[in-house]
Design brief:
mainly beta; about 1450 residues; 109 strands; 8 helices; globular; six-stranded antiparallel β-sheet; four-stranded antiparallel β-sheet
């Protein structure tokens, strides 16, 4: 059975044995339902002692290390370790996620605490600064963040009696924090003489600013405010790990194994010494206590949980046990009873009852245990030790039968033979020893074929053969009991194996990914009857495969819970359960096996969701059964939107060219031209890699995008209006439910989403900061308040926004593969779906995260690539279109049925009031009823159906449909070929907009005396466009190859076209029929030009460095221009048709004589005097100024001169169209620049009368028309693009004062004030050891008085008197402005100097001061609102300039 699909049965976590006591504290609580909540490995556990039942929270994917209980005791917050750790807040009743808090901490989350009303959560990270964060956890929003301390923080707590106050403690410190606005400020606790400065492990807050804390030496320190007022010595004999406050008082637990109860004033009530109780033992250490009423919960270092009833305190009840610290590797199951045996490096062997979920026996050995086996009759238990010995015990009473040591290195595997006569023992020194059980374990054989340590062994059913695996991944066979190696494979043909636990072998090939290191699967166990097997690996994952599993990369179901490596896994004797053990988390997991037939009954129980689909996730290894991707989708997934240089990099690049700028600024440069251009019309629509990006607006106009332009098209008047806020390719567009606002997302290093109004064309909101490289999908919620977006970064991040506030609400990694569409549920704005490559996911918002579940396909098929999706008529119905032409119908997350809708992919889908409309690659638009039962009508997009009023020609029948929208009685259709069509319900089709298809557009020529232009593109078409107000495509012709250049003859009757295979054609300019064609070159024809006048000659330039000159009349080649060292880029004739100017890729400017092609050398002064018939050149002294400062990074690709030779238009690789005065002499000329194209502008041409400038953009496939406006004619339309971007300083005109102030640098001053040499460290810097990753410069900050510690050196103490500020002379005017104000109707004056805000009373001449700043104040303003009288804001300079602390203060109060 070479089935590579995943098995249909699954596992359900039933019980977890253990509790995480080591390296954690305060992680055990009673919930409101009197259940007990704690964690082990990566699982949150809610245990009900009454029902002896566990529930599991599986939202983490690594070790949980911190836990906090909400004051209402239903919600729990847990924090995990990891590279990008997150916090989950979840409901202990339903074990569902309520909120996810992420993207702030690194390394891990050490402590958590809720405030009194449970609205806010504080967390402490494990990073080098031990960052403290305060969250509004329901929204998933970070409220405040500050570095916690240079050393570890062990506990943090809110002061329950004063809002906005917190206390944290840790290695040799305690800090008292106040939260004001969004700023967290700490004050260090002063130990003084009352107690020693030492590590504080736990704390609890009481009323009246009193804080109790437990110290490392067992004392309790009592704090009032920030001062230590008294100590309770010897509260415990060693460190106090846990302190818990409740209504009755406080409970503390320490390393001495005692729990002490204290009343509210911290007077002792009682002590419970757990070491002295019946369950106690020497070395018991308490890590967590929780006191509720008359019950106390105690968690210990060695993974036990005790429950103590106060009036029977010497009889604690042991409710949970687990292995102690140390790796856990040994696991065996009893052959006839539901028992599991485990042995660990903690030297204990334990027997667990799988029915009672309890530990029933425990025995301590001399050595760490590495493996275990139970004899076939269930009487003996053999244990392999780390020191090379093995011990056999009687299971009944755990007494020793025999102890044998024949090896020096660890024993890795033991197995009894099925007949019970032999025990095979595999060790680290590469050999297997065979012992006779009946002969009191006498050694009877030895297998020595391996070259590496033995990892796994299995006996044959008849006990005659043994197979082994070793560390090299070799599989060997031996005859038993002699141990002779079997080399003849024929001998093994019919062998049946009694068990299968080996990781290599044909039967288990499929468990390995296609490309994998052989050692990351630690254990396998096959269930022959159920034909499934389970594996355990180094990534903490338990997987379920079919057995046998022959082909590599088979599918599986995977289960998370263990945090680090899973070391062993076994089926129970009756295959009801799977037991797995974790190495580092030393926990034992018991999974219930649910065969397929039971699955149907369990569907109504929602599987426990989790962040990683641990419920049961198909593997993502090679999906052999998925059809090949459709060619169009394949093409699209390979498009890369990464740029070498982004427009955002411009300022930085300019900065790097500072020297050049300085030299340029000193020279007098030509002004920018007075005339300007304005975008007038754009031909093109982006359909080839976008979808559903075309809509009707409220007023019946059509909105879509091409290049970097949002277009609003009025089809009655055939006019367009443009949103020009983007500066790179727009990749997606969504319309607001009211059809008046539009959201567009673009490509960029930090790409932005713009929300703009289609009437005023003004931006309403710009969202940035979360998507890298670009945004490929956006969608508004039904109420229009939220927006969802998907990025094209490697994780395809999904972000949910409150777009009006510009606030990110939630974010999550979407998928490794491309996501095409995101849709927000119209009925529940907290839910959304995404579809993409082999991806259909249902998300719901949880605080700052989103929790996703894959669509459950069930028996109906496999996950296909989905291209589009919509929600249906109720909140749980969704519909998606697949790449194979089906429509999938979903209820909740379950696939109910599929309907065949199109041949080839379904690219677009739209929901109507009563039904749906779909469009596909087959070029058919289909209308459906509201259940997709029947197709009501189809429209095929065909040339024959085109109505007379169309603005162009359909290139082919049935073009691939990428967008559909309905409204105003019509269906709007966008095609892959860049056409927008309007389909009337009765049938006729009108073509409204058209552009080139995918491929770069380079060729552009304007007609010598008509408003017409021609373009030729890599899409293998030549097109003629009408530039008059009718704006349509007049003719199109398909070519055998793509083309890069074209040119009209001087009489306008012929059109020459250069193709990419080195050939060129001359065609009739009206009919586009061939006149002649030639091929003399192999490389791309890069430029083609008729000589002026009669057009006698045609110059043809190619990329193989030559220009050929042809006589047009005789159709013969008459000359070849040689001498260029690189490909030819531009070419111009002189007016006489005798001289040719050529530019090359090596930036050479060359001249050739026509028609023979002789090379000429002409001095640059002469070049200017020559009359040129056209100027499209980019080199030479007359256009030196068109090259930008950053010319190394970007090329000027094209230029064109107006016929009056006054203005030169250029296009460059940055997508800018610029206008310069001609001649542009001198470097870095001034210009006006316009953004509309996205990447490179490949060609620019003025029309014959200079009324329009025509530009084409390479990859953005668009043709843009700009009207040329004379100076003085300035329309105040908003969409006029920006002017020249050269900075003001280059125009001079700075006043000397302004210049000086502009050059003040506020950062370095702190270092330069070091007047006298200093040694040692300033006192206020001493305690704060700077971390290695940031050693701050010496600070002038005021030493904060509360941080000063008195040195206990001198015996006599003199009271330190305080200095009080009385008067300040001075006012900061040298570099500040608007910083003196009247207050209180002119009675007071407020101003600042140094780091002090001063309130000066005019009548009395007295001053009062605001002294909270610790560095120069640079600005001050007064709130003018009557509601906020006397509120002032001041801003200071700091080493971290970014954290400009704004402190609001009340004047007159201070």
């Amino acid at each position: 059975m070479a089935d590579r699909s995943a098995p249909s049965c699954h596992l359900r976590l039933e019980w977890v044995y253990g509790y995480r006591g080591h390296q954690c504290r305060n992680n055990l609580y009673y919930t409101a339902a009197k259940e007990i909540v704690y964690f082990v490995a990566g699982v949150g556990v809610v245990y009900s002692p009454r029902e002896h039942r566990q529930k599991f929270y599986l939202g983490h994917q690594d070790d949980i290390i911190s836990l906090a209980l909400h004051p209402e005791r239903v919600l729990v917050a847990t924090g995990q370790v990891g590279k990008e750790p997150y916090i989950c807040v979840w409901d202990s009743y339903t074990v569902q996620t309520v909120s996810v808090l992420k993207d702030v901490h690194t390394h891990g989350i050490a402590c958590l605490a809720f405030d009194l009303d449970g609205q806010r959560l504080v967390s402490v990270g494990l990073d080098s600064k031990n960052t403290v964060c305060v969250w509004d956890w329901r929204k998933g929003k970070l409220l405040s963040m500050a570095p916690g301390h240079t050393d570890r923080i062990f506990d943090i707590s809110w002061d329950l009696y004063q809002p906005n106050k917190l206390v944290s403690c840790g290695v040799k410190h305690i800090k008292f924090w106040s939260l004001c606005g969004n700023s967290l400020t700490p004050k260090r606790g002063v130990f003084g003489k009352t107690g020693d400065l030492q590590t504080i492990l736990c704390l609890a807050c009481a009323r009246d600013e009193v804080t109790y804390s437990g110290a490392l030496n067992g004392d309790i320190y009592v704090w009032k405010g920030i001062n230590l007022v008294r100590t309770i010595q010897g509260a415990h004999a060693a460190g106090i790990f846990s302190m818990n406050a409740c209504e009755e008082g406080f409970a503390t637990g320490g390393r001495d194994g005692c729990v002490r109860l204290w009343d509210l004033n911290f007077k002792p009530i009682t002590v419970i010494d757990l070491r002295e109780t019946d369950q106690g033992y020497k070395g018991l250490s308490v890590r967590s206590v929780c006191w509720r009423g008359d019950h106390i919960l105690v968690g210990t270092q060695d993974s036990e949980i005790f429950e103590i009833v106060v009036h029977e305190r010497n009889k604690p009840f042991l409710i949970m046990q687990g292995h102690c610290e140390g790796e856990l590797w040994a696991l065996a199951v009893h052959p006839t009873k539901p028992l599991a045996m485990t042995g660990s490096d903690d030297r204990s062997v334990r027997i667990w009852s799988l029915i009672d979920h309890a530990l029933i026996a425990r025995c301590n050995m001399e050595e760490p245990i590495r493996c275990a086996a139970v004899s076939t009759d269930g009487i003996h238990l053999a244990l392999g030790m780390k020191d090379g010995s093995f011990t056999v015990l009687r299971v009944r009473d755990m007494t020793e039968v025999v102890h044998i040591k024949d090896r020096k290195e660890a024993i890795h595997e033991l197995k009894y033979s099925p007949d019970g006569n032999f025990l095979a023992v595999g060790s680290n020194d590469s050999s297997v020893d065979i012992y006779g059980v009946v002969q009191r374990y006498k050694k009877v054989g030895e297998c020595i074929g391996s070259l590496s340590f033995i990892t796994h062994m299995d006996w044959s059913s008849d006990s005659k053969y043994l197979q082994t695996n070793d560390g090299n991944g070799k599989r060997l066979f031996y005859r038993m009991p002699s141990g002779k190696e079997v080399t003849n494979k024929e001998e093994l043909k019919g062998v049946q194996w009694a068990s299968w636990t080996c990781v290599s072998g044909l039967e288990v090939n499929g468990i390995w990914p296609k490309y994998s290191d052989i050692n990351d699967i630690n254990s396998v166990d096959a269930n022959f009857i159920g034909q499934v097997m389970v594996t355990a690996d180094d990534y903490g994952i338990v997987k379920l495969f079919r057995y046998p599993c022959l082909r590599k990369g088979a599918k599986f179901k995977k289960y998370l819970g263990h945090s680090a490596h899973v070391t062993n896994v076994r089926w129970s004797h009756d295959h009801q359960w799977v037991v797995s053990i974790g190495g580092a988390d030393h926990s034992v997991f018991q999974w219930k096996f649910v065969p397929d037939r039971k699955l149907k009954d369990s569907l109504h129980i929602a599987p426990q969701e989790s962040l990683v689909d641990s419920n049961s996730d198909e593997s993502d290894s090679d999906q052999s059964d998925v059809p090949e991707l459709d060619s169009e989708i394949e093409q699209e997934t390979q498009i890369t939107y990464r740029r070498q240089v982004y427009k955002e990099d411009l300022p930085q690049l300019k900065e790097q060219c500072k020297e050049k700028r300085k030299s340029a600024a000193s020279k007098r440069r030509e002004r920018a031209p007075g005339n300007s251009i304005r975008l007038h019309f754009v031909h093109g629509y982006r359909g080839y890699d976008c979808r559903s990006n075309l809509f009707y607006t409220q007023t019946g106009e059509i909105v879509y995008h091409v290049a970097a332009v949002g277009v609003v098209y009025n089809r009655q008047q055939n006019t367009q209006r443009f949103y020009l806020g983007h500066d790179d390719d727009i990749l997606c567009l969504a319309i607001h439910p009211l059809k008046d606002y539009v959201a567009t997302g673009q490509v960029g290093r930090d790409s932005s989403i713009h929300i703009w109004d289609t009437e005023t064309i003004k931006p309403l909101s710009v969202l940035k900061g979360y998507h890298q490289y670009g945004v490929c999908a956006v969608d508004f919620s039904a109420d229009g308040k939220r927006l969802a977006s998907v990025g094209i970064d490697d994780n395809h991040t999904i972000v949910l926004w409150d777009w009006k506030k510009g606030e990110k609400l939630s974010a999550v990694r979407g998928s490794k593969d491309k996501i095409f569409v995101v849709k927000i549920n119209p009925y529940m704005p907290d839910k959304l779906i995404t579809v993409g490559i082999k991806h259909m996911k249902f998300w719901r918002r949880a605080g700052g995260g989103l929790i996703g579940r894959k669509g459950c396909i069930g028996a109906l098929g496999r996950t296909d690539t989905m291209m589009c999706a919509v929600y249906g008529w109720t909140e749980e119905m969704a519909f998606s279109g697949t790449s194979t032409g089906d429509v999938c119908i979903w209820r909740d997350v379950f696939l109910i049925k599929t309907v065949k809708a199109h041949d080839g992919p379904v690219f677009s889908m739209h929901a109507l009031e009563k039904g749906f409309v779909t469009g596909g690659k087959d070029g058919v638009v289909a209308l459906w009823d509201d259940t997709f039962e029947r197709c009501l009508k189809t429209y095929a997009i065909k040339r024959a159906a085109l109505a007379p009023g169309s603005k162009g020609l359909l290139l082919e029948d049935n073009p691939s449909i990428r967008a559909i929208s309905l409204g105003h009685g019509h269906i709007l259709v966008g095609t892959k070929n860049g056409e927008i069509l309007e389909v009337d319900k009765s049938g006729p089709i009108t073509l409204l907009v058209q552009g080139h298809m995918e491929g770069e557009v380079w060729g552009l020529a304007t007609h010598p005396h008509l408003p017409i232009c021609a373009t030729v593109s890599d899409d293998k078409t030549l097109r003629i466009w009408d530039l008059s107000p009718s704006h349509c495509m007049l003719a199109v012709r398909k070519l055998k190859k793509g083309g890069r250049c074209c040119c009209f003859s001087p009489d306008g009757k012929a059109l020459a076209v250069g193709l990419n295979d080195g050939s060129f054609l001359i065609v009739n300019a009206d009919t586009l029929e061939d006149l002649v064609s030639f091929q003399h070159r192999k490389d791309v024809i890069s430029e083609i030009r008729f000589s002026p006048g009669a057009g006698k000659y045609l110059a043809v330039a190619s990329c193989d460095n030559f220009v050929d000159i042809y006589n047009v009349m005789s159709s013969k080649r008459v000359g070849i221009c040689k001498g260029a060292s690189s490909y030819i880029t531009h070419m111009d004739w002189d007016v006489r048709g005798k001289l040719l100017q050529v530019n090359t890729g090596a930036k050479e400017q060359l001249f050739f004589e026509a028609p023979r092609g002789k090379k000429q050398t002409i001095p640059s002064l002469e070049v200017e005097k020559i009359g040129w018939a056209s100027w499209t050149s980019v080199l030479g002294s007359c256009c030196e100024g068109i090259w930008p400062i950053i010319g190394e990074v970007t090329d000027v690709t094209a230029s064109c001169l107006t016929s009056d030779s006054k203005v030169l238009a250029t296009g460059d690789d940055f997508g800018f169209v610029k206008l310069f005065r001609y001649p542009a002499k001198g470097k870095f000329g001034k210009f006006k620049r316009y953004v509309a194209h996205s990447t490179h502008v490949t060609n620019v041409r003025w029309t014959y009368d200079d009324s329009l400038l025509v530009t084409v953009g390479g990859a953005d496939t668009s043709l843009m028309l700009w009207t040329y406006e004379m100076e003085g004619h300035r329309d105040s339309r908003q969409c006029d693009s920006e002017e020249s971007d050269l900075d003001s300083e280059e125009d001079g005109g700075y006043d000397s004062d302004v210049t000086r102030e502009n050059e003040i640098n506020y950062t370095i001053k702190a270092l330069s004030t070091n007047i006298r040499p200093m040694f040692g460290i300033k006192p206020h810097l001493q305690q704060k050891e700077p971390t290695l990753d940031e050693r701050p410069p010496v600070s002038r900050a005021l030493p904060q008085p509360e941080k000063l510690q008195t040195n206990n050196v001198g015996k006599k103490k003199r009271p330190i008197e305080d200095l009080i500020l009385e008067l300040v002379f001075g006012y900061r005017g040298k570099d500040c402005r608007n910083n003196v104000h009247y207050l209180n109707d002119g009675a007071d004056v407020i101003y600042h100097t140094a780091s002090i805000g001063i309130l000066y009373n005019v009548a009395t001449g007295s001053q009062s001061f605001y002294q909270e700043h610790n560095d120069d104040i640079l600005c001050l303003t007064v709130n003018q609102h009557p509601k906020f009288t006397n509120i002032v804001a001041t801003g200071q300079e700091t080493q971290q300039i970014c954290q400009l602390q704004l402190l609001l203060f009340m004047c007159g109060m201070q």
